[in-house]
Amino acid sequence: MRPPHGAFDPTERPMMLYWELTRACELSCRHCRAEAQKSRHPDELSTEEGLQLIKQIGQFGDPLPHVVITGGDPLKRPDLWVFIDALIEQGISTAITPSGTYAINPEVVSQFRQHGIWMVSMSIDGSNPERHDGIRQVPGSFAQTVQACEWCREQGLPMQMNTLVCQQTLDDLPMIYELMKQFGAARWSLFFLIQVGRGKGLEEITPAQAEQLMHTLYGWAKEGPMVIKTTEAPFYRRVALQSDLQNESAAVKGSINRGMGIRDGCGVMFISHLGEVFPSGFVPVVAGNVRDKSPVDIYREADLFQRLRDMNNLKGKCGRCSYKHQCGGSRARALAYTGDVLESDPLCPYQPE
């Protein structure tokens, strides 16, 4: 979910800052990182703390990070609109990831546009109700999400569509891709399963399947109806570079090049509902808390973030790889598999010379 941007230094500021307003959500998704619950946590950042956080985000300076308001379901927070207005007033480009429930309706979507939301992000994890609702574990979620997408189109709101990639969804991806084109999605982000939270009950695809999928995705990206990106599978960039990226259109090169070198803790930052700061939502290692220290200082000074930004710290084949500066591997998957955030990404089959 990345609008046009100028040059930035990932050691000074994140490009993407994800703010988890709450973990409350009516869905019970089988892959939920947050293990969301129906009720809000009593120790969530208060309205006053949230507004203070927004002021501190503004202290990153230009170019400001792009903020993605996420959850749980952000619509569970009655002060959501206060936060959106404060972010927009700071000149911060703001996107939102509502859940596909009955909380989202035409009035809510209209308010997204009126309050200045730049992009709405929705999730489709199956090409039909049976498959999607089977992942989301709430009947009617597919129909509600499709309806919400139509409301967004009517309001002229760009949409990023998100899809889980795991063994349970792999064979359905071509049909989901056709749906993405029908929705008129501006971006399609494929989230490669990290076995954290409830995701421990699902099965990751194999490295060989992942490599083949990357080539398929690159082929779809060249068709041009939408930008295609991968989350926690950055070796998509390596596959593009090994193919014919330099001979592609400016649009294809631009969509892939924008992600080069951006990864957990290096251009990406995540702030939890309790104020904890992580390199990403899938790397549950706390670097600090905004209740105690400015997010600017945590991002720039925390030892965890500094270690993640130094490519010389990478271990195994990721450390030897000639594509490490463009890719860097999934730090979240390395941590989940080995307990070491700097180890190699086990999903990537590439063997550097």
What features would you highlight for this structure?
single chain; 13 helices; disordered N terminus; 353 residues; alpha/beta
- Helix segment tally: 13
User: Radius of gyration, rounded?
Assistant: 19 Å
Helices and strands, in N-to-C order?
Answer: EHEHEHEHHEHEHEHHEEEEHHHH
| Arithmetic mean of pLDDT | 92
Helix content: 25-40%
Structural class: alpha/beta
Q: What is this structure's SSE topology?
A:
Layout (H helix, E strand, L loop, with lengths): L15 E5 L26 H11 L8 E5 L9 H10 L4 E3 L9 H10 L3 E5 L5 H8 L4 H15 L3 E7 L7 H11 L3 E6 L14 H17 L3 E5 L4 H7 L7 H8 L5 E2 L2 E5 L4 E3 L9 E2 L5 H7 L1 H7 L6 H5 L10 H8 L15
Parallel strand pairs: 1-2, 1-9, 2-3, 3-4, 4-5, 5-6, 6-7, 8-9
Antiparallel strand pairs: 9-10, 10-11
Helix pairs in contact: 1-2, 3-5
Characterise the protein shown here:
Helices cover 35% and strands 14% of the residues. It is α/β, with parallel strands linked by helices. Strand 1, helix 1 (47-57) and strand 2 (66-70) form a beta-alpha-beta unit.
